[in-house]
Design brief:
The protein is mainly alpha-helical. Helices cover about 45% and strands about 10% of the residues. The relative contact order is 0.19. Bound molecules: BIS(adenosine)-5'-pentaphosphate and magnesium ion. BIS(adenosine)-5'-pentaphosphate binds next to helix 1, helix 2, helix 3, helix 6 and strand 5.
């Protein structure tokens, strides 16, 4: 899943992983978990994340190499938030080639920046399952608790403050947007309009994913 902050990578990546019965690897979630637990990775990543900057390629490539080697990825995986730089994309190609694996599709979601800012300002997350909600477009049933964890109150993300969001957009424009050309040149890019209902975007992604003979289950 490729796209700017707030475009729906997590929301849709989660649904695709369920639909195709494969693992979801969200690098942002892995890092936030590490920060919460105060692990060495968390201590190293915290400052960059809080200010909206990307974490070093070296750290991210090592993390994804390790995570994609775990048993639950055997039937495939959805990557949400990786790669985010050209060196990360090159490292991913190399590590998959080593294992005889390949990327089926790079799904690029696009939404206007005004809409993205609105989404990030309104985002609330479940601290247990990390599902994202939004009063506009993806509301929780009662507005304050997770639908799947009804006693858990929704929280905001530290990097959704105004300044960090500005920095995240700058990082996206400078370091991640070049991946659109990188994957288009390799004929692997599938662009999808990320505006519209969550269900509508999901259907469009599923059409574009082109996962061949795999039979999607109902998400
Ligand atoms: P990460 O967690 O990946 O953040 P991000 O890319 O900024 O993306 P977000 O998670 O904010 O948005 P999203 O696209 O997942 O949208 P969501 O589904 O939540 O990374 C965080 C940080 O970790 C980075 O800044 C960096 O420091 C570090 N990091 C991570 N990976 C890295 C890497 N590879 N290299 C270096 N550093 C890395 O949706 C957003 C909101 O919109 C929600 O409220 C949702 O409910 C709502 N919404 C979703 N779809 C719709 C819709 N169709 N209509 C209306 N609302 C919608
Ligand atoms: Mg996300």
């Amino acid at each position: 899943m490729l796209g700017a902050p707030g475009v729906g990578k997590g929301t849709q990546g989660r649904r695709l992983a369920v639909a195709y019965g494969c693992a979801l690897i969200s690098t942002g979630e892995i890092l936030r978990e590490a920060v919460a637990r105060g692990t060495p990775l968390g201590l190293e990543a915290r400052r960059q994340m809080d200010s909206g900057r990307l974490v070093d390629d070296r750290v991210m490539i090592g993390l994804v190499r390790e995570r994609t080697g775990e048993p639950d990825t055997r039937d495939g995986f959805v990557l949400d938030g990786f790669p985010r730089t050209v060196p990360q994309a090159e490292a991913l190609d190399a590590m998959l080639a080593e294992r005889g694996q390949r990327i089926d599709a790079v799904l690029y979601l696009a939404v206007s920046e005004d809409e993205l800012v609105r989404r990030l300002q309104g985002r609330r997350e479940c601290p247990v399952c990390k599902r994202a909600y939004n009063p506009e477009g993806a509301p929780a049933r009662d507005g304050i608790h997770c639908d799947d964890h009804p006693t858990t109150g929704l929280t905001t993300r530290l990097d959704d403050g105004e300044e960090a969001v500005r920095q995240r957009f700058t990082e996206f424009r400078e370091k991640t947007a070049p991946l659109v050309d990188y994957y288009a040149a390799a004929g692997r890019l599938r662009s999808v309009n990320g505006t519209g209902t969550v269900d509508g975007v999901f259907e469009a992604l599923r059409r574009e994913a082109g996962l061949g003979s795999r039979s999607p289950q109902t998400a």
